From TrEMBL:
InterPro entries to which the protein is assigned, alphabetical: Adhesion/Biosynth-related, FAS1_dom_sf, FAS1_domain
Protein name: FAS1 domain-containing protein
Ranges of residues in domain FAS1: 47-219
Signal peptide bounds: none
Source species: Tetradesmus obliquus (Green alga)
Amino acid sequence: MQVAGEKIVVGVTGSASALGLDDIKRPSKQDSKPHVYPKDGCSACSATTAWDYISSTPSLSAVAGLIKAIGLDKALMGPFTGTLALPTNEAVAAYVAQIKADTAPYPDVFNNFLTKLLNYHFILRSAPAWQLDTVTLSTRYRNPWTAGPHTVTFVVDPSVSKRAPGDWQWSRKSMHNRPMPRVFAVTHIVDEQGNNVTFASKDNFVLGGGVIHSINAVLNANDIYPSHTASANSIPEKEALLDLITQVSAALNISMLELLEDRPGTILSPTSEAFAKLQAELSITPTPQQLYDVLAYHFCPSPDNSVKGLLYFPFTKNKKYNPCKTLLATNKPTAGLPGLLFSNTPTGLTTPQDLTVTYLNGLTGGQGTSNIVLTGITTPLAVTHLVDTVMVPPLGALAPAPAPAPAPVP
């Protein structure tokens, strides 16, 4: 897209298929394969609770502080039957270094981010680092849109095996009388962003038969990112928005990306195809200020800077903040701009609901609807939804020129 006085190009890169939307919209299944794991009270398990182990392990002091900050420590003070894959202090420090936002003024919003991030490290069943095969495991972090859990994959080395310990058991009661099988060493974990994460230590069993592994990097779900830049690097369809923000900021000598990082709110990110469609519809060359207004129409700051002002699915549960007031309406209070209305409509029992945003369309003067094609992308202070339309505000500046009058009949 070319801007008056400046040449600003919005790259049209990627496609819906690059996002893996088909996979995202297909709910994940709960663990279905039989597996083996320690029995409750097994001899290999310690009398130490999960929290006692975490809080007394120096290499896990950073993640222990995060767990305590969100109140998850209380759930780990008794018998524990799941698995925690916890990043070391060095891994936490490396992840924190990627966070661009100033989170200190907004602890409840940041805790929402931390809760989602840490729940992705909480596997629902006991999963020792010896498995029957490479296996995908459900975590405590769920996707409410698809109604399925986010997952991690334990990858085994088939060349390294041993007989499963005698105090382990099959997960299915019908198989409890079977002899213990051979199990294979798990070498690493693959997260939803395709990262291979190695172990710092394995199989620290705790009271209840649960297990704790220390890992050398933070696990990344496919909708949690430390910054907007990181999410754009992983989701090609967000690159066009980020490029436009960067170039408009340079033209106006501002830092809009920093504003979006540092202010709690809800962001709508048009796809590359949406930007291309708008470019074809416009008959004028927009100025940087006009494009800034368009960008500001896609951001709803949290009215009270609280986590409740972030619009997550299901939108119908957040009527106090929905419709949401855009940054543009805040900047131009006399324009009388209506809010953006987020809606979700059930489509069936096995498919995600249809998600839409209703807005006042400046190109037509009427009501417009933009479809949300990917929802709930979480960064430390914001939630982003990917939409299929660039929403032009009703300010008239970007309205297409009227069609020419028909030529007179000779």
